[in-house]
Q: What sequence folds into this?
């Protein structure tokens, strides 16, 4: 939160996206209740058609980001 407030001075933080290998529903709920802000579990492959994603969806955030690294979409 400190990084956001320093980098984006004057803007309000609207939500927190929890991801990575440690991203769980319980952690997301803890952030939401302690920070009094909307928190959601990251799902980088949510637009992927197949439902066959191995492991927790949040574990794919780094791989999805790296895959987009050279794309014009980023």
A:
């Amino acid at each position: 939160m400190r990084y956001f407030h320093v980098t984006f001075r004057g803007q309000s933080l609207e939500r927190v996206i929890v991801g990575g290998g440690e991203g769980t529903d319980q952690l997301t709920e803890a952030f939401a209740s302690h920070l009094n802000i909307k928190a959601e579990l990251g799902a980088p492959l949510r637009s992927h058609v197949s439902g066959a994603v191995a492991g927790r969806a949040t574990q794919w955030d780094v791989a999805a980001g790296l895959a987009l690294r050279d794309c014009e979409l980023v």
Summary: The two ends are 23 Å apart (CA to CA). The chain has a mean pLDDT of 78. The beta strands are 15-18, 38-41. The chain has three helices and two strands.
